[in-house]
User: What shape does this take?
Amino acid sequence: METLNGVSQTLLIPLYARFLETQRDDAIIRDEKSREIIDQLNPDFSQFSKTIWSTQVGIAIRTEILDRETSNFLKQNPTGVVVNLGAGLCTRFFRVDNGFVKWFELDLEPVKQLWGKVFTETECHRYLVYSLLDFSWIDEIKPFAASPILFIAEGLLFYFEESEVKEIITTIKNNFPGSEMLIEAIGPSQAKNTQKHPVVSKTDVFFKWGIKTGKDLEQWDKDIKFINEWYYYDKYGSRWRWYRFYRYIPSLRKGYKIFHIKFNK
Ligand SMILES: C[S@@+](CC[C@H](N)C(=O)[O-])C[C@H]1O[C@@H](n2cnc3c(N)ncnc32)[C@H](O)[C@@H]1O
Assistant: This one.
C-alpha cells in the first residue's frame, strides 16, 4: 500500500466504507469483495477509522444508486460498454456483471499494481493505465464507439478544477456522442470546505470542483442532456443521525449527489 500517494490514497476511503457497511445487519449494500481485498492488501485505515461513520453512509448510498443505475443501463443495453473513470478498487463489476458487458477500469499506474494483486484481467474486464487528462485513453475506447457506452465518475471529479471537468466531459461528449455518464458531485460550498469533511480532511488532498445541480451542465454545451439526480440525504434518514434534517435545506440537501447525463447523437 506504500505505493499510493496524492489523490490515489483516497481510494482507501470507499473501500473501507463498503467493507464496514457490509458488516452491518442493516447494511444498505453488501460488498463481500471489499473484505477479500482488505484481507489480501491489509491497508492501514487508522487515519479514517474514528470519523468515517457519515462518509460510510454516503458511500453506501452512492454505491446503491450507482449499482442500480448501472444495472438499468445494462438491462437496456445488455452488450453495452462501461468505462469506470478513476476506478480505484471499485468492485461494482462483480455486482452487476451480466456476462456480456465490456468493462474498463481506468486509473493511474500505482493503482494498477494493487488491482493486479486482487483482480484478474479478462477480455471483458480490463484495466487501463492513464491519467484522465491524458486523453490518449480515448483511443482505447474508440473501437467500441458504435456500442452504447456508460462512463462512471464516482469519487473523482471533485478533485479536479472546473476547467478540467469541462474538458473531460466535453472530450467524452465529442468522441462518444450518444453515450451516457453517471457523475458524483458535491456542492460549491462543500468544495470550498475540505477541512470540514470528516475523512478527506485526513488526507493531503483538496476538493476543487462543486456544482449546485447536474442540470447546470446543460449550460456548458447544447449537446449535454440532464436526465436525473439523486441526493444522499433523501435516503436512510435514521442512519444520518442529526444530518437527516439536511434534506430540508436545499444547499445542504444537494451537497452530495449523483447525476445522470446523456450526450446527444
Ligand atoms: C476516491 S477514489 C474513488 C475510487 C472509486 N471510483 C470508488 O468510488 O471506489 C479516487 C480515484 O481517482 C483516481 N484518480 C485521481 N486522479 C486521476 C487521474 N488524473 N487519472 C486517473 N485516475 C485518477 C485515484 O487514483 C483514485 O483511485
Remarks:
- Strands lie at 81-85, 102-107, 125-129, 149-153, 180-186, 224-231, 256-263.
- The chain has a mean pLDDT of 96.
- DSSP finds nine helices and seven strands in the chain.
